[in-house]
Structures are given as structure tokens and as C-alpha cells.
Amino acid sequence: MNIQEVLTQKVKEAVTSIFKVELPTVEFQPTRKDFAGDITAVIFPMLRFVKGNPVQIGEQIGQFLKDEVEEVTDFNVVKGFLNITISNEYYLDFFEGIRNLQDFGFASQSSKEAIMVEYSSPNTNKPLHLGHVRNNLLGYSVAEILKASGKKVYKTQIINDRGIHICKSMLAWQRFGNGETPESTGLKGDKLVGSYYVAFDKAYKAEIATMISNGIDEKVAEKEAPILLEAQEMLRKWEAGDEEVVELWKTMNQWVYDGFEITYKNMGVDFDQLYYESNTYLLGKDFVEDGLQRGVFYKKEDGSVWIDLTDEGLDEKIVLRSDGTAVYMTQDIGTAIQRVKDNPDVKGMVYTVGNEQDYHFKVLFLILQKLGFGWAEKLYHLSYGMVDLPSGKMKSREGTVVDADELMAEMTQTAADISEELGKLEDYSKEEKQELYKIIGLGALKYYILKVDPKKRILFNPEESVDFQGNTGPFIQYTYARIQSILRKAEELEQDLNSSQELTDLHEKEKELLKQLQLFPETIQLAADNYSPALIANYTYDLVKEFNSFYQNVSILGEQDQNKKIFRVQLAKKVGEVIKSAFGLLGIQVPDRM
Q1: Of 28, 194, 435, 564, whose CB count within 10 A is highest?
Q2: Which residue range or ranges hold the DALR anticodon binding domain (predicted)?
Q3: What is the C-alpha separation between 190 and 180, in angstroms, rounded?
Q4: What are the phi and psi torsion angles at 133 (to 5°)?
Q5: Are 476 and 544 in contact (CB under 8 A)?
Q6: 526: which residues sit within 8 A by CB, 6+ positions away?
Q7: Confidence (pTM)
Q8: Is-contact 106 485, C-beta < 8 A?
Q9: Whole-number average pLDDT of the chain
Q10: How does residue 427 score in pLDDT terms, banded at 50, 70 and 90?
Q11: How many Cβ atoms are within 10 Å of 446's Cβ, its own excluded?
Q12: Between vectors from CA 225 to CA 220 and to CA 229, what angle results, nearest 5°?
């Protein structure tokens, strides 16, 4: 039981004993820096149950705690805030309990029930771009945080490998490719295929312009441009199983998969299972038919099938076209059900998809609930905002997309430029420098994106993200490297750094650092409950700020008292371990030297 749980129980006992009423909850917050104390109980919410002056109420509760709780050594009341001082012994006992825990803060798997986290879900007609970067970083990090909170997790994606957009790239390659391949061009497969998506759009626009100059209406030209009609015919052939078209589709998709694999590896994300739209786009139709029989859906005169969600504040939504073909909603219904069939332990899913799809997922989740699936109550849309660069928006059809590979390479170069300016890497080999630049650059990118609440739109500034000061990845990485330097120097002193220390007093900065460490397990749980890597990122920044304040105010290796010196080295080591663990949940590496 942590100190907040102990105090909650005792504050309730105090209120019952003194005021003869039961208090349902107790609100705590960290004590403000300008007041004495370690944790603060807020009196104002209690006034709904206890009538009186908040200062007097706080004084009475505070005295009860001081008399009844061994860990409470003092208290003071400021207006409606009861500031409670906790004994040094409590924090020293806490540290001794976690000092050798390798996985401090991580909960063991508490249930056989699993959660499936979907992220990435790209199209196979172009490379991954900046939007995919935020998607992948969020999805991967949320999956890791859920695992750390004690959940069983499957990471998955559905690859959008069919449709007219895929056929556009295929047709353009047939027309303009001259048989070139990733091997013959030296290009990653996703980039090669993406270039033909751009080539299609260029040829399409040229045909439209020619048709308009010949007196054809623009709207008609857009629908009847020969290259578009040919792409539509190619899609029909694919759906009919035409051998030549299917073979080309398989070949070009494989080029893209191979390219994606390289990007994912460089980004540091992975998946447990893959789903392909070409295998799932017909799923769901049987469930629509079943729902029609049970009155969940209804059929219009033209034969199309709909659901009426107006009673839930939404609108009517089509789930099957009049010709019997599926819409995206049909497919998503079927895919969700198929995933649970494939993994019967899945009792919830997280969909990492941009906020433009908010409405779609409200409808999807409601439909699955109405179809009677219990796990549909535990579906969550991890909605996120767009990422902008100072140069403006991205348009993939025009080839102005911010390519994920190029962005990561640019981040590595930016880290190299700034590190060279700081001039701290003289004794590094060329290979060591390059690896370090990559760790710093990717760490900067990931932290900059993940420290922001997912729902907020981001303006990403590469140079700002690689700043070695402030709330940035490199600043936190640098602090970790500083701790490793302290540990290396401590080992050179040939002292036993693993022994327990008999201390009774704590420096104020030591105590503040221990209080921050104590928050790590509950921060993981809170981040899991809110699907928010930002909580982990900003916790880590607060921990690092606290450590740097400790480092600047307290001598570590220069301390004359051997017990204190060893304790401070142990404390620094634990902070380093927590930084590494927290950054691991964000998919960020930490270097031993910088």
C-alpha cells in the first residue's frame, strides 16, 4: 500500500471519528514548492459532507494523522489545503524496496484477456509519410504502455492493398515503367510504386486538360478520362480474378511490403499480426444479413441496407449498397469480428486512426454493440490530430508528401549538425558517431510527437526538437548519459555500490527525487487508462528536471560521508533505469555516452 492509499484510509477514519460522517473519496495533490510538506489533502471537496471552517477542519484531520499514522511527522494548513510531511524513513524504506527491482513500475500480466492495438494501416500505393509516423509512434507506444500496465496485447495493422488507388499505380507502371524494378533502379519498393501513383495523376490531369480544350465539360472529363476508365477496368479484372492483373498486383505489392519493412525497422516499431484488405473486404456481409433478420438494419426500396442511429444522436448509415457490394463500414464490422475469431482472448481493441474518422468509429462501435458483441463495449478510437511542418501540408498525389524515410534521415542529420557544433564527440569513431546521431535524431522526433496529447494538432519543427535544453528527447537522453558517466566514475572508485545504507536523514533534493520515482507505477497505469504516451513523456521530463536539480545542489562522488555517497550513486542509478524504462515505452533508445 503506497502512502496515498494509507492516507486516504486514515483521512476517512479521521472524518468518521471527528465529524461522524463517511467521506466517499479524498483528493490529494503534490505539495506546492513554496510550502512545507510532501503531499496535500484538499479540504474543499469535503465541505459537501463536513460543515465548518476549512482551516479548522484541516487542523483537526492533520492532528489525527500525526497521532495515528507512523509515517506522518508534521502538517500545516494553508486555507483549504492540508500539507502533510512524510518521514524520511518511509522514503528510505521505499527506495530499499525498489533499488534492485529490474522492472520497477511495470505490472505483471493480471488477466488472460487481451487487447488488440491497430496502427499504421497504410495503402500499398505510396511510401509511409509524416502522418504515418505519428500513427505508428502512438500505436506502438500505447501497446507498450498497456503491456507495462499488466495487459496482454496484440499489435496489428490492416494493409489497404486493394482498390482503385492501387490500380492507378499498377496501370502507370505498365504504361511508363519499361519493366523497371526496385533492384534495377536501386529504389525502395514503396518509393518506386509511389512514383507511379504520382505519374498516374500527372497523366490523368494532362488528359483532362486536353479534353477540356476540345470542348468537353470539366466534370465529364474528370469522369471519362481514358486513363481513369482503364484503371477502373483493371480493378474490375482484379475483382474477377484475372490472372495477369492479379500477378502484377502481387508483384508490386510485395515491392511495397519490402519497402515498408525497412521503414518500420528504422522507426523501431513492429507487429504481431497482419491483416490485408484483399482478404477482409468481403467480410461483414453475412453479419449485415443476420442483423437485417434481427431488425438491427433495414432495407430501402432500392435494396440498399441501412442502420438508423438517430436515437443515439447520429444519423442513418449505409452498410450495404443496392447492388450488394460492401462499403468500408461493412468491411470494418467483419474485420473486427474476424479478429476476435482469430484471437478468442481479445476483449477489446484500440484503433489508431486520425481524427477525420471520429464519426466513422462512433458508428462502427455502436453497430457492433447492437449486433450483440460484448467486447464491443471495450473498443476505443485512439484519435489524433494532423502533423504539420513549417513548410505546409502534404499532398501525396502531387508528390509533395513528407516521406517518413526522408524525415528520419533529416532528423539524423540535424542531430549530427547540432552535436558537431557542441563538439563533445572527439573520441568517437565514425560508426559510433553515426549510431549516436540516429539515436538522438529519432529520439528527438519521437519525443516531440509523443509528448503532445494525441488529440492535439502538432506543428513539427525538426531543429527545435533536437534542442539539448528544455522539454526535448535529447535533453532527457543527455541526462541519462550523464548518469551513466557518474556510474562509470563510481565503479572506478572500487566501492561496493550494492550494499544497503543506514541513513536517517535525507537532503531535500534527495527526498524530492524519491517522491518523483514513487509516481512511476501510477503514471504507467494512468497512461494506460487514458491511452496517452504524453503522460509518460512528461513524467520523464519532470523526473529529469528533478534529477538535474539534485545533481546541481548535492555532491555525489565528492561527498565525504561514504554512506551518503553510495546512497546517492544508487539513487542516480535508479533514476537512470526509470528514464530508460519510460523511454522504452515511447520506443526511444538512450545512449550511454553523449
Answers
A1: 194
A2: 476-594
A3: 13
A4: -60, -50
A5: yes
A6: 532, 535
A7: 0.92
A8: no
A9: 93
A10: confident
A11: 28
A12: 110
Neighbour-count burial of 403, counting CB atoms closer than 10 A to its CB (0-12 exposed, 13-18 middle, 19+ buried): buried
Q: Is the predicted pLDDT of residue 504 greater than 90, yes or no?
A: no
Q: How far is CA 104 from CA 140, 223, 463, 518, 578, in A?
A: 21, 61, 34, 10, 8
Quick one: CA dihedral 323, 282, 143, 133, positive or negative? Answer: negative
Distance from C-alpha of 131 to C-alpha of 402, rounded to nearest angstrom: 9
Detail the DSSP E strand segments found in 386-533.
Answer: 387-388, 458-459
Q: Give the whole-angstrom CA distance, residue 53 versus residue 101.
A: 45
Region of residue 392 (left: phi > 0; alpha: psi -120 to 50; beta: else) = left
Q: Residue 17: what residue type?
A: S
Question: Angle, to 10 degrees, between the axis of helix 508-518 and the axis of helix 562-585?
Answer: 30
> What number of other Cβ atoms are within 10 A of residue 324's Cβ?
11
3 state DSSP class of 51: coil
Grid cell for residue 398: 502531387
Q: Provide CB contacts within 8 A for 395, sequence distance 6+.
A: 401
From CA 470, how far away is CA 223, in angstroms rounded?
53
Structure-block grid coordinates of residue 195: 512514383
Helix (H, G, I), strand (E, B) or coil at 352: strand
Count the Cβ atoms, other than its own, within 10 Å of residue 6.
17
Residue 527 forms beta bridges with which residues? none
CA-based Rg of the chain, rounded to a whole angstrom?
29
Give, in order, the Cα–Cα distances in Å from 524 to each of 55, 138, 270, 529, 541: 34, 15, 21, 9, 14
CA-nearest of 382, 386, 361 to 134 is: 386
> Count of CB atoms within 10 A of residue 191's CB?
19
